[in-house]
Amino acid sequence: MGDDPKKPEDIFRSGIKQLISATNTVLSGLESVAKPVGAAWGTVKTQSVVVKDSAVYTYKRRHEFPLEIIGGSALLGGGVGLLRRGRIAGLVGAAAFGGAAYAVVYDEIKLEELPDMLFGKKE
After folding, report:
1. Residue from 55, 90, 51 nearest 74 by CA
2. Which of 2, 87, 100, 107 is most buried, judged by most C-beta within 10 A?
3. How far apart are CA 26 and CA 117, in angstroms?
4. What residues contact residue 98 under an 8 Å CB cut-off, 6+ apart?
5. Please, is 95 exposed, middle or buried when counting C-beta atoms within 10 Å of its C-beta (0-12, 13-18, 19+)?
6. Domain ranges of the chain
């Protein structure tokens, strides 16, 4: 009977110390992961601003180079369809993408009104 059982307060304190130590370990691990993710997120934000600005610039000047936009869209749609599904899908993709680009370039479809056309007008 030389060993005295530990007091409940000592057991409780020991458990709290272990919990704090485990929490600190987890938080330091998260911090080491958060730094590269934060840096990558900053790069993504910077690049997305550049892409957005380029798209807005192109959309505003779309009347200046309609052949390039319509032709490029038809080639893209046809190429994707051709590579993924075959000749018929390539023709359909070229027609669909070229037609959509024509409608946007010549204001048959205004991009500002597109959400209302697709999802209905909010009243």
Report:
1. 90
2. 100
3. 49
4. 70, 71, 73, 74, 77
5. middle
6. 7-60, 63-123
Report which secondary-structure segment, H or E, holds 101: helix 87-105
Q: Chunked in runs of 10, what are the mean pLDDT values of the chain (123 residues)?
A: 66 86 86 78 89 88 90 95 93 95 86 79 69
C-alpha span between 114 and 118 (Å, rounded): 6
The answer to whether the beta carbons of residues 78 and 94 sit under 8 Å apart is: yes
Place of tokens 């730094």: 35
Q: Is the pTM of this model over 0.85?
A: no
Q: How far is CA 71 from the centre of its chain?
A: 27
